[in-house]
């Protein structure tokens, strides 16, 4: 198999050397070239034809966000991974880059201390994303579980009873999730009859700004979750970075609960704790949605939802940036429907609108094969 050709774009000589040295250590990756700013990167793109681009944000002449826009205007779909700082300004710029068409982001290596630490950060964060975004097998790094390549989609197991009317909507996503959520949530009305709880793998600071951006896009109210908020229809609670979001039953009803229990699937927040708690709190009357993302977070929780009488909808491979999380659910036989992103909202509304029967969401909802990039 040919190596993955990567174009490294950064105005810092130090960062370019750290990134190129680490990437060159991996036999599956080849550094196709480097660029000192976005303008040079755009000019080199056609000649180098890289399989993926790593992009700094703040650069002279043309910054990373402008470069992403220029690349997407040229109709290139080459995957782009941004280097970000974990600051308010860095989070805002990274979210702008994702909105412009970047696929994912990692922490800028110059911010983590020594050169050795910087190189290890690139090794753990960037290499798994490069391989996942280009459809190559990923060996899980200690800091993140990319999961195995998905097996073929399995039809869901036959149900022994009726599908319960959903009383809550829970959603999980990771790589590619910000763009997917910015399309899914605005398609849901303010009159949605159930509360929504959402886990997007993101660090602190990012989740607050992301919630604010989604709130501006949506008829639904979107907030970064805080501990002890009563659950009510029409509000989306986004898990804050570095905290698991779950549901707690109290004498006053169901509430959000935040904790810093150990990461699951190498993530905190993680999807599985939310899904498990929803099953317990709502006695299985749960609709779960798993969108694009690396790894297998959500697979176990989706199995719990379906076993308890709930339903699970996942994004298909063709419209996913990385078909790791939804693919893991589908390959385990836990998906009632495997759908293109633009049909997920329709399915959610249909499933929330009336009584269910055992025949609803049987294997006929899952295509025999799911095409796409990954």
Low-confidence stretches: 140-150, 356-374
Per CATH, the superfamily of the largest domain is Methylesterase CheB, C-terminal domain
Can you write the helix and strand succession as a string? EHEHEHEHEHEHEHEEEEHEHEHEH
Q: Helix proportion of residues, in percent?
A: 25-40%
- Number of extended strands: 14
Please identify the structural class as seen in this structure: alpha/beta
Average pLDDT works out at: 90
Walk me through the structure.
- With 374 residues, this protein is of the alpha/beta class.
- The chain has 2 domains: 4-133, Response regulator (Rossmann fold, 3-Layer(aba) Sandwich); 168-359, Methylesterase CheB, C-terminal domain (Rossmann fold, 3-Layer(aba) Sandwich), CATH 3.40.50.
- Helices cover 33% and strands 19% of the residues.
- The chain has 11 helices and 14 strands.
- The protein has a 7-stranded parallel β-sheet, with helices on both faces.
- Helix 3 (64-73) links the parallel strand 3 and strand 4.
- Helix 1 (13-25) crosses helix 5 (115-133), helix 8 (271-281) runs parallel beside helix 9 (299-307) and helix 9 crosses helix 10.
- The radius of gyration is 20 Å and the shape is globular.
Write the layout of secondary structure elements.
Blueprint: E1 4-9, H1 13-25, E2 29-35, H2 38-48, E3 52-55, H3 64-73, E4 80-84, H4 88-100, E5 104-107, H5 115-133, E6 168-173, H6 177-184, E7 196-200, H7 206-217, E8 221-224, E9 235-238, E10 244-250, E11 253-259, H8 271-281, E12 286-290, H9 299-307, E13 311-315, H10 325-331, E14 337-339, H11 341-352
Parallel strand pairs: 1-2, 1-3, 3-4, 4-5, 6-7, 6-12, 7-9, 8-9, 12-13, 13-14
Antiparallel strand pairs: 10-11
Helix pairs in contact: 1-5, 2-3, 3-4, 8-9, 9-10
